[in-house]
Amino acid sequence: MGIKVGVLGARGRVGEAVVAGVQEAEDLDLVAEIDRDDDLSTLVDAGAEVIVDFTTPDAVMGNIEFCVEHGIHCVVGTTGFDKERLAKVRSWVEKSEGVGVLIAPNFAISAVLTMAFARQAARFFESAEVIEFHHPNKLDAPSGTAVHTAEGIAEARREAGMGAQPDKTAQSLEGARGADVEGVPVHGVRMSGMVAHEEVIFGTQGQTLTIRQDSYDRTSFVPGVLVGVRNVAEHPGLTVGLDAYLGLEG
Amino acid sequence: MGIKVGVLGARGRVGEAVVAGVQEAEDLDLVAEIDRDDDLSTLVDAGAEVIVDFTTPDAVMGNIEFCVEHGIHCVVGTTGFDKERLAKVRSWVEKSEGVGVLIAPNFAISAVLTMAFARQAARFFESAEVIEFHHPNKLDAPSGTAVHTAEGIAEARREAGMGAQPDKTAQSLEGARGADVEGVPVHGVRMSGMVAHEEVIFGTQGQTLTIRQDSYDRTSFVPGVLVGVRNVAEHPGLTVGLDAYLGLEG
Amino acid sequence: MGIKVGVLGARGRVGEAVVAGVQEAEDLDLVAEIDRDDDLSTLVDAGAEVIVDFTTPDAVMGNIEFCVEHGIHCVVGTTGFDKERLAKVRSWVEKSEGVGVLIAPNFAISAVLTMAFARQAARFFESAEVIEFHHPNKLDAPSGTAVHTAEGIAEARREAGMGAQPDKTAQSLEGARGADVEGVPVHGVRMSGMVAHEEVIFGTQGQTLTIRQDSYDRTSFVPGVLVGVRNVAEHPGLTVGLDAYLGLEG
Amino acid sequence: MGIKVGVLGARGRVGEAVVAGVQEAEDLDLVAEIDRDDDLSTLVDAGAEVIVDFTTPDAVMGNIEFCVEHGIHCVVGTTGFDKERLAKVRSWVEKSEGVGVLIAPNFAISAVLTMAFARQAARFFESAEVIEFHHPNKLDAPSGTAVHTAEGIAEARREAGMGAQPDKTAQSLEGARGADVEGVPVHGVRMSGMVAHEEVIFGTQGQTLTIRQDSYDRTSFVPGVLVGVRNVAEHPGLTVGLDAYLGLEG
């Protein structure tokens, strides 16, 4: 018998990929597929132990409140959480002993690991730059993930008491050295055919270390969601970010 | 005032790079350069707090014994340590409270991190392969580092209860799928112009994670040695492998 | 007014992608979509100037014969052409002045260019290896494209009078050095999440050249098909392989 | 008996690498090593057929004039050639039937091929970007080679009637999208440990093509110089740029 899983937002594109992922996993049982007009009580009737929520900012708070009340753990990929919303979720789980809620902005496990490893590596290399690659329809540059990665590197450098990166550039075309994110250069490539890719390069005497993440299609969040589903019961309370589930050091 | 450092094997090619590295580091003071015919008592006279030993299997045991006896910490890159030798070193440091000895087979920090990250990532990806690239004068294939990395991945997979990697290959030219190291394929490339490079690739649904290490010249061990020198005093007793100094999880 | 294009095999998965590609191209007009049970005369009625054929080995010969007879140029991706079949097609086009037929085993333009550039580069580098990466459901290793690439490199090396590649490997785990394709090592990686990728690495003193091709999804043949459609009228007679249309040197 | 080669600037760092390269080549005979104070007539006495000149802008014109007059072919890597100087060299070789002079700004054969392949590939891909990687002591960004590569891509795009690259970026940190070189984004990375590396990425539907060049040390120009030495006699007159010797299409 596997963990009993309900999927909320089950008929959206993302939700469908989650449904398929749960169905293929031998240790998980899909017991409920909920969408916009379905009643949440179905989850209770079906005995759901964990739900996955990829719905909308409008719906998600009600969903979490209901599930926590009924002792159902939550793995949430829906966006729109600010400090206030997180505080509210925290107040719910505090009253409901043992229930775990994971809210993560990014479930692509390779991206989460890239960020975590970048933080760990940062203090050993005097140089660090980030290059991200996306399809040309992306509206922002650099990507939020790349900025977040650079901020993590910058923080690790500050904690280690490291100064500015070595860079003797005296003559430069505008933009050549990338965007400056707290002292870490970030370069954004927009390329037909690509999906979402990030490369972090570290350098010191005689060597470099490169950590690269490639997302080839839009289902790359599924393995991370399943990690969440399998482990949420062991993380009571509110957890923000998948990395806390990966057994890595911060 | 920096840490007072003595270098043993100071006139060998490796030792010369260590000497240069110590001299350039603002927080380290080079107080002694010892080679084959020099007297170890120079170290005591010079007030060395830490020594770096890149000498020979013949010389290294005497050097460590002398230093531990005189309360000098040791960072050792010399090869040839088997269980017996390690036990002997351990017996010396046990008698000498607070003295630290670091013996590491690989000081290239990018290589050590690659191995450590590979171990951490392994259980999240059903596929994992290692490709190493070296100059064509290398005698063994795959490299010891690549085999060691693959073994680490295999161990992490076993601990996580993972089975064999997915691979439907039915028709194959001999060698196409690489060497099998405990179920992890390892490929060795021999390429004019290259020095020493290792790439670990992990894959799961819709995504891959690549960790790559490039050594561009033969001084790439220096930053790792300096990490050793700076931290050995805080690691009393015998430590084998630089990773224990990097604050990473195993 | 654009070139009038008919698509044969229009309701297969590949055909659908071709149809979409033709519809999006401003200089092309889709005038006919033919599948299994449709009458070829539709092509004539619609005024098709060029057809694209992704059907079956059973159907393709009849399709080509009909089109050539009616003065319609053919771009063919259907498999199963041996010397006999090619000779038959050649005999048809010889009778039909000015009609062009392009039969290509690979329309992924990045893969075709990788092979072409590899041939051009080969004689300048003493080392050359090929690494291909595919999803784990692939049945053969190495891929046909990788073998073909290696054969092209080997031929260019022979023509330039080059000997064996430098390789001092004396001790090796079985398979570590890859499959030997006419003296060129070929390595096959099987990786969850990947689609189809090929990397050719060349090395000589102090430098390497890497040519890499990544296919991220199954529509990567479309741009090459469109190159065929746009240029087939200027290549009367039978042409085998897209490279002849790319204005490259062999 | 090999080609008789004289090296000018033989005791400079670059010249020394050329001398070593000629000595190791079985089909070449080193017959003269000339430096600042040596007499050029030594070349004639030694029977030099080809000279390699890595001297200074001050010395090089006299050297070429002397060699051309004496029927000795020239392979020149010295910098400082403007239109006037090239015109003067051209006037000399015109008078001296059959003598070849090759003047090249870049002898790193992998870099020259990268540029040539980039030009060939450009018209098949709607997206193209250049990333160059250098040590942090480099003064200019992007590198001259990267700018030159981007200009070549831009020219090939114009010749093929291609418009602007697709890029929906609406929100951007300054510099994130690189420097704009005639519509081709160019990114410069400055990284401890690296030497000189260039990556050109092309993208179209479902696929990318990457051409990457890595220089690992400062002798990477030697193989290109030897290509020059072996072929200069077959290229009478003045040739600018090594690519003309590589049998590639422009």
UniProtKB/TrEMBL annotation, chains A, B, C, D:
GO cellular component: cytosol
Catalyzed reactions per annotation: (S)-2,3,4,5-tetrahydrodipicolinate + NADP(+) + H2O = (2S,4S)-4-hydroxy-2,3,4,5-tetrahydrodipicolinate + NADPH + H(+); (S)-2,3,4,5-tetrahydrodipicolinate + NAD(+) + H2O = (2S,4S)-4-hydroxy-2,3,4,5-tetrahydrodipicolinate + NADH + H(+)
Pathway stated in the Swiss-Prot or TrEMBL entry: Amino-acid biosynthesis; L-lysine biosynthesis via DAP pathway; (S)-tetrahydrodipicolinate from L-aspartate: step 4/4
UniProt keyword list: Amino-acid biosynthesis, Cytoplasm, Diaminopimelate biosynthesis, Lysine biosynthesis, NAD, NADP, Oxidoreductase
Enzyme class: oxidoreductase
GN (gene name): dapB
Binding site for NAD(+): 9-14, 35, 77-79, 104-107
Active site (UniProt): 134 (proton donor/acceptor), 138 (proton donor)
Protein name in the entry: 4-hydroxy-tetrahydrodipicolinate reductase
Residues that coordinate or bind (S)-2,3,4,5-tetrahydrodipicolinate: 135, 144-145
PROSITE patterns named among the record's database cross-references: DAPB
